[in-house]
Write a structure and sequence with these properties.
- The protein is α+β, with helices and mostly antiparallel strands.
- It has a single domain, classed as Glucose Permease (Domain IIA), CATH 2.70.70.
- It contains four helices and 13 strands.
- An eight-stranded mixed beta sheet has the order 1-2-5-12-9-8-7-10, covered by helices on one side.
- A hairpin with a 2-residue loop joins strand 8 and strand 9.
Length: 225
């Protein structure tokens, strides 16, 4: 069977939006939120408000409307949450793609599919409202996950409900409902959900990295930002 990363890359031929509105490919700027970014040293990362200001300043300096990045990125900002920083494991490697746009921005499905599951993961530092879509291409099933949504996004949904490519499926939540983050979308591509519903790890520990990278390839292979 074809390597999953190559399979995901071949599904789309060019820029494929997941944020609704008039965002163009040139409106996006890559942002480094890894432990290697010295700008983060002066930032109070535990404050979602401070982080929102940081993102706004970054976009202004880059003359951009949206920031993106974060796949396979080692981040220290998760140290603020016991969900990631605990005795069992220090989970600090991000394996989704984050897209930083204003709260309540429209989220659209990049592909046709159907609703697999949804859930409000309301722990501090968690996804908050989360939606998972199921897709099939050339007979091969896979999933996309959308985290940090508004609670309103989960109302009136039903498992199995079909969605079209480019159809609005949700909107971003603000910090008071998205796990206490500056508004952004966590987008992840997953081959095997391993029995999960409405949730799937998006931040993992180093020991599990190889397996997760195979199961969750770079989402930008699909979006091509």
């Amino acid at each position: 069977m074809q390597n999953f990363s190559k399979f995901v890359n071949d599904i789309t031929s060019g820029f494929t939006p997941v944020i609704g509105g008039d965002y163009k490919q040139e409106d996006y700027a890559y942002i480094d939120l890894s432990e290697n970014n010295p700008e983060l040293l002066r930032l109070e990362v535990a404050s979602s408000e401070a982080f929102s200001v940081f993102i706004s300043e970054f976009l202004k300096n880059k003359n951009a409307k949206a920031a993106y990045g974060g796949y396979n990125e080692l981040r220290t900002l998760y140290n603020r949450s016991e969900l990631f920083n605990n005795i069992q494991a220090n989970r600090n490697i991000h394996i989704g793609l984050d897209i930083w746009v204003p709260a309540f921005s429209e989220i659209i499905s990049p592909l046709e599919g159907k609703i697999h599951s949804f859930k409000d993961n309301d722990n501090f530092g968690d996804y908050g409202p989360t939606l998972i879509l199921e897709h099939s291409n050339e007979g091969r099933k896979f999933f996309t996950l959308y985290g940090h949504l508004s609670r309103k996004s989960l109302s009136d949904l039903s498992v199995g409900q079909t969605v079209k490519a480019g159809e609005k499926i949700a909107e971003l939540g603000d910090f008071d409902e998205n796990g206490d983050y500056a508004p952004h979308l966590h987008f992840q591509v997953i081959e095997d959900l391993k029995g999960n519903t409405g949730d799937f790890p998006g931040v993992i520990k180093k020991e599990d990295l190889d397996n997760y990278l195979k199961n969750c390839p770079d989402p930008n292979l699909l979006l091509k930002i």
